[in-house]
Amino acid sequence: MAQWIARAADSDIWWSFKSSATTVIAAAVTLLIIVVAFLSPVLAPHTPFDPSSLSLSDGLKPPVFVGDDGDWSFPLGTDDQGRDVLSSIMYGTRLSLEVGFASVVVAMLLGITLGLFSGYFGGAVDSVIMRIADVQLTFPAILVALLIDGIVRGILTSQRHDEIAVFVIVGAIGLSFWVQYARTVRGSVLVEKNKEYVQAARVIGLSPVLIMFRHVLPNVTGPVLVIATINLGLAIITEATLSFLGVGLPSTQPSLGTLIRLGNELLQSGEWWITLFPSITLAALVLAVNLLGDWLRDALNPKLR
Amino acid sequence: MATNNPPLLEVRNLRVEFPTRRGTLIAVDNVSFEISPGEVLGVVGESGAGKSLTGNAIIGLLEPPGRIAAGEIRLEGRRIDTLPYEEMRKVRGARIGAIFQDPLTSLNPLYSVGRQLVETIQTHKQLSATAARARALELLKEVGIPGAEHRIDHYPHQFSGGMRQRVVIALALCADPRLIVADEPTTALDVSIQAQIIALLKRLCREHKTAVMLVTHDMGVIAETADRVAVMYAGRIAEIGPVRDVIKHAQHPYTKGLMGSIPHLGERGERLTQIDGSMPRLTEIPRGCAFNPRCTFRGERCLVDRPELMAAGASRAACWLHDARGVGAPVAKEPANA
Amino acid sequence: MPEFVRIDGLKRYFDVSPPWLVRKLENRPRQIVQAVDGVDITIAKGETFSLVGESGCGKSTVARLVVGLYPPTAGTIAFDGHDMAQRRKGSETSALRRRLQMIFQDPYASLNPRWRVFDIIAEPIRAFGLARDKADLRKQVEDLLRQVRLTPADGAKFPHEFSGGQRQRISIARALASRPEFLVCDEPTSALDVSVQAQILNLMMDLQRRLQLTYLFISHNLAVVYHISTRVGVMYLGRVVEQAPTETLFRRPKHPYTRMLLDTIPDLEMTGRQRMPVGGEVPSPINPPSGCTFHPRCPFANERCKIERPKALPIEGGSVACHGIEEGRIPVEERRYEKAS
Predict the structure, then answer these.
(1) Would you call C202 an interface residue with chain B, using a CB distance cutoff of 8 Å?
(2) Which residues of A are less than 8 Å from C93 in CB distance?
């Protein structure tokens, strides 16, 4: 273990990380948001979505640092139902992150598998997979997600839909993002499969599936990791957009997007804090994740070093 | 080759460094040599010996973060290593021509070869468009491109590898340079094409009295082409002298090993002389003589003192064997599998 | 000599045509590269048979056909009496594969950068189930590392920690891991520096003697080929134009192309021998010249050479495919080489 740490501390990646202040700050912000969000049951002052703990008399309190109506038990104010905005943000961020990670994993698994098969076998397999990818690319990802969500709504009752809303949205975002992984992996596989170490494995007579997963896959992970990081930000934004449009997560299970939508309705009447603070959190999270992704892309590209 | 002429190119104590986060790597260390007008100097060595970097330093095309850290380079008496980039660019076109291993990197794929030749000619010479084109055609004919009249309007991808390298040579000759730095000009080519390009280079420098610094890993090319040869090892010149002497009577143990390790026609199925081990990485160049861990003749002095070039037969070699005090008490070579 | 590997009428064509739609729209024909166009070779047990030629002559394709990386378009490859193309049970195929292995050209691409050296060398042993248990596997890998003059401790390292020559040793250890009898070596030293090349060639000759290996050696370097081979085949545009025992081929070359190739060997003895640089370049294998494919570059070519493809005729323990030699039009030539001083 100590050996591992020593090796990591000596690596070029760590060195390039340390020497970029932006990246260090971005990593710190990301880490902070993730830790706070996942510890929200412990850290949050209230449990905003337990109806029994809410009192309408706490409704629409402004943040403590604005005017005199503030209350220190609700530092960022409350919404019209008397829910603590800070606690809502913490729980909402957790949900946003969960949806983001899960949909990236879905997209990645799907994309990597299809990309590997497409690149390694070529021919008709390749043509079919890549033409599907081409067609999908002609629709914006958000439209694909809307479509998938719409189909599921058409099949299920609205109550049933709300129960599995998280899975629907993860599936919808995952299905709309796999193309990038598939194309990248396919490209890398086309390069790797002609290298002599793959030929050496073929001379031994290993099966193509074994060669793909044991030899080729470990050598195409670099670019996949970069896309995954950048896609995490995109997935969170997509979820927020869907939720903002009202087709994402229901208000009983609000993510950052849902919070922004709910607050947006009260913006006209002057309760700006209900929508502003979730928006700031969302922007900070996505910006930090994207900066990390940009750095990772450069750090893994030997040509730029 | 008259030795009392002032040298065309003079390199003194050249040192090329690469600053890295683990400290500065010295890739070329204390290299000095001269090239006389019309002379062909071969610079030979294995990969990582610093031969290409030396060539790049002379034409002012060291890739950053590499930099000239010490020493000086003079062309016709004028210092060129300190020139600003724009000035150096003019020198590079007009006085020094460059030929690289991969002809595609020297040619713009979007312009016809004729247009590239005409542009280069007009940058360096006051010629009208028609005169420049006539000159371009003449050059293409000179480097042996069949059907030059219509090939002049073709694009680089329409030429084969050997023909492309001929075009690059024509391009290098545009401004009648005094010196051509050729970095592995034949390595990417097939053996039969290699022989053609070598013959062409030899003929051209004879006819134009152009000096050539020929950087290559191939002793065969050197033997066929060069007047003198410098053998480089781990960033330094191990031996320099007339090509015949270096090849037939190598003075440095490294050169001897190198010559022995080339398979000869005439002996078959026997073990080749081999130099055990490999050239040290720049991060781990040993103290004393850089070659000492692989050397069968090494003595105590070789582990501590770094030899500079000294007279050795008809050549000069950086080896204590040729010093009056010798190498000191013998030390066994390091085990073979390092 | 008992024949160990026999290649008969081997052909491999590659379709490099543009896609169907483009072809139809732009009315372009199919384009077929005749990479290997009728090769007959026999290799005896324990010998080194070399194929030489310029890039694009098909020598590497022959190597890949022999180890089964490509299926042949036509022709047969028989290994120790077994036709490699014949369908047989998985275990029998595996038993045959174990006996022939390959060494590759590029020591930087032939080892998986993410694998430790131990696992790279152990892979064939595992794949063919040649180790009784873990301890046996470890012992076998360590023996292999020692055999190629590396140390057992090197097994724990990754390929990038080694120099080019050391990597080629690892590659050789991997090829030896399944205890093969026949090694196909595709330009194993052409990416290496000369002093390292000498180490690898010496190692390969030592191993051949010790393990009674048979080599098919692919190279463009005639001096290396002269040094290591028992017999040599010269390839030009997918065909073997001449094959002969090494001394015969180098001292009494018959085919004009062989002579031209021998003329390109640089003269390290500084004898001042004038080399005759040959004009022309290798034509594209998509539209090879008619008749004898060498005729556009051949100083002895006549009308027959332009029309009729020459057959390989036996001569002096080898064979040559040349009308000029058959008709006695081309004078026999003797070449001498001095020993190095």
Answers:
(1) yes
(2) 205
Interface ipTM > 0.95? no
Q: What is the pLDDT of residues A236-287, one digit of tens each?
A: 888 888 888 878 787 778 888 888 888 888 878 877 888 888 899 999 999 9
Predicted confidence (pLDDT) per residue in B287-331, tens digit = 999 999 999 899 899 999 999 999 988 899 999 999 888 888 888
Q: In chain B, what residues touch C205 (CB-CB under 8 Å)?
A: 269, 271
Q: What is the mean pLDDT of chain B?
A: 88
Tell me the nearest-neighbour CA distance from A201 into chain C, angstroms: 8
Which chain C residues contact residue B221 at CB under 8 A? Answer: 266
Under an 8 A CB cutoff, do C69 and A204 touch? no
Give the pLDDT confidence score for residue B47 in this predicted structure: 86
Which residues 247-276 of chain B have a CB within 8 Å of chain C? 247-248, 257-269, 271-276
Q: DSSP string spanning C227-269?
A: HH-SEEEEEETTEEEEEEEHHHHHHS--SHHHHHHHHTS--TT
| Partner-chain contact B272 C220, CB within 8 Å | no
Which residue of C97, C128, C174 is in closest CB contact with A200?
C174
User: C282 falls in which pLDDT band (50, 70, 90)?
Assistant: confident
Mutation for testing the C interface, residue in B157, B160, B163, B192 having most C CBs under 10 Å: B192
Give the pair of three-digit tokens for residue A61: 């309190």
Reduced DSSP (H G I as helix, E B as strand, rest coil) percent helix, strand, coil of chain B, to 5 = 35, 25, 40
Cβ separation C268–B247 shorter than 8 A: yes
Binary contact (C220, B190; C-beta < 8 A) = yes
| Neighbour-count burial of B13, counting CB atoms closer than 10 A to its CB (0-12 exposed, 13-18 middle, 19+ buried) | exposed
User: Could you read off the pLDDT of B137-177 as tens digits, one per residue?
Assistant: 999 988 888 888 889 999 998 888 888 888 999 998 888 89
| Three-state DSSP state, A241 | helix
Look at residue A190 and give its three-state secondary structure.
helix
How many residue pairs from chains B and C have C-beta atoms closer than 8 A? Answer: 139
pTM, whole model, 2 decimals? 0.85
Q: Name the residue in chain C with its Cα closest to that of A210.
A: C127
- Whether C155 has a pLDDT exceeding 90, the answer reads yes
State how far the Cα of A107 lies from the Cα of A233, in Å rounded to an integer.
14
Q: Do B337 and C337 touch (CB under 8 A)?
A: no
What gap in Å lies between CA A145 and CA A168, rounded to an integer?
9
Domains plus CATH for chain A?
A: 18-304 (1.10.3720.10)
Whole domain around residue B125: which residue ranges? 102-174
**Gap from B286 CA to chain C (nearest CA, Å):** 17
Edge-to-edge order in the sheet of strand C239-245 = C100-103, C182-186, C214-219, C48-52, C231-236, C239-245, C318-320, C313-315
Q: What average pLDDT score do residues B113-126 get?
A: 89
Give the CA count within 13 Å in the CB-facing half-sphere of C72.
24
For residue A195, which residues of chain C lie inside 8 Å, CB to CB? 109-110
- Give residue C265's pLDDT band: very low, low, confident or very high (50, 70, 90): confident
pLDDT tens sequence across A185-227: 999 899 888 889 999 999 988 888 889 888 998 888 888 888 8
The total number of structural domains in chain B stands at: 1
